[in-house]
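pls design
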């Protein structure tokens, strides 16, 4: 049974949530201290070395202890990581190579993967993070915001939200090796029957990227009754997914057509003092440096009401101006960072502009899809209940057992999963 759900009072309550379709989710990471992440890996090594050399009260001050973690707190090694498990103050162990993470939407940074330094690292996410995994990340809800409801990444996401209450992180697969799709049992079979084509977990994620819209309860994902509309949305969602994965999972890195690719027209200064945009010239000014062409859509691309490019720039310049990325005064280890503007940072900025430009170019197609959905017959939550798909069973909302992992617990004890 399908029904037409108008955009009126109560209409949203009838639509399925992403939570109904991909039931297993994990809360965002809670590092507890800003210095464990940085835009560049070299800063993390310098911070680690400073912390190791410090002793007693000075080490505790630099550590920035919390109720969950102090220099005297032992902790299990994160899945897939060989790090110390004894108290850091007694035996810091060797420096763990940093890992690339998604620090909020479209911001790739580095993290020290040592569980003793992280208040809530969400080991269940690390356990399934491999070369096959894709993570759907819900964005914080902001009323009247027209930005995307979620994004996707192949990197381990920390779930940070630029504004609003952070959303949940939903792995595409419940086990490593692309095993056990994170879909409500029976959903894929039901949609396959309705649409007459094979529906996989990646199809559902692609559709959600194209069609989901924000709500206080989480992303709403209207499912069309029409197979042709579903196919169009999945095709659009696959393109969105390809761009957001930035070449991961066997794809090509995003590129704009010749003549529209952004280039550095005037060298960026060692310590950029500000960021501004001239729409008429399609130029991004970074201090005395210039990058163009930068489409207006890339400059104004927002998530949770926050302009992505401005936030990306602030996170890379505030510490050198005496402010940490979390808004607190940059002090201790958080103040340790590059003294200038590294060359690789410019390359990362050019790629980010490219991704945002290409995503903004797909916004008209997304809006057209959503407009059609407003008038189309859709599958309601009631219809999914009647089909026996909803509610999702309790086990589908819990992490799956991963029996082939051997993990070291606190103080070197063996951890049973």
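designed seq:
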């Amino acid at each position: 049974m399908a029904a037409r759900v108008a955009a009126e009072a109560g209409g949203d309550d009838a639509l399925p949530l992403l939570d109904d379709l991909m039931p297993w989710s994990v809360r965002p990471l809670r590092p507890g201290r800003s210095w464990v992440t940085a835009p560049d890996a070299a800063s993390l090594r310098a911070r680690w070395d400073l912390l190791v050399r410090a002793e007693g009260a000075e080490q505790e001050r630099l550590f920035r202890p919390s109720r969950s973690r102090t220099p005297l707190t032992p902790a299990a090694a994160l899945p897939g990581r060989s790090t110390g498990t004894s108290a850091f103050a007694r035996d810091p162990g060797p420096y763990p190579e940093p890992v690339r993470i998604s620090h909020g939407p479209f911001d790739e940074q580095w993290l020290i993967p040592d569980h003793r330094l992280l208040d809530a690292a969400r080991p269940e996410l690390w356990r399934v993070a491999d070369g096959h995994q894709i993570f759907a990340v819900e964005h914080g809800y902001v009323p009247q915001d027209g930005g995307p409801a979620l994004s996707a990444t192949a990197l381990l996401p920390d779930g940070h939200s630029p504004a609003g209450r952070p959303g949940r992180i939903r792995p595409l697969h419940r086990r490593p090796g692309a095993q056990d799709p994170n879909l409500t049992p029976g959903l894929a079979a039901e949609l396959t029957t309705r649409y007459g084509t094979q529906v996989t977990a990646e199809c559902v994620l692609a559709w959600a990227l194209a069609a989901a819209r924000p709500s206080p309860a989480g992303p709403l994902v209207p499912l069309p009754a029409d197979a042709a509309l579903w196919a169009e949305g999945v095709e659009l969602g696959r393109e969105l997914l390809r761009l957001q994965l930035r070449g991961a999972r066997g794809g090509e890195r995003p590129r704009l057509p010749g003549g529209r690719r952004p280039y550095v027209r005037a060298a960026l200064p060692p310590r950029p003092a500000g960021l501004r945009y001239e729409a008429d010239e399609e130029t991004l000014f970074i201090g005395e440096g210039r990058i163009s062409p930068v489409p207006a859509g890339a400059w104004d691309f927002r998530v949770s009401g926050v302009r992505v490019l401005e936030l990306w720039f602030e996170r890379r310049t505030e510490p050198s101006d005496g402010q940490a990325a979390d808004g607190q005064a940059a002090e201790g280890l958080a103040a340790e960072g590059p003294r200038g503007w590294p060359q690789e940072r410019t390359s990362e900025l050019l790629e980010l502009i490219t991704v945002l430009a290409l995503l903004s170019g797909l916004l008209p197609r997304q809006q057209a899809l959503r407009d059609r959905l407003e008038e189309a017959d859709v599958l309601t939550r009631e219809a999914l209940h009647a089909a026996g798909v909803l509610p999702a069973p309790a086990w589908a909302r819990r992490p799956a057992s991963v029996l082939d992992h051997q993990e070291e617990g606190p103080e070197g004890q063996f951890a049973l999963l």
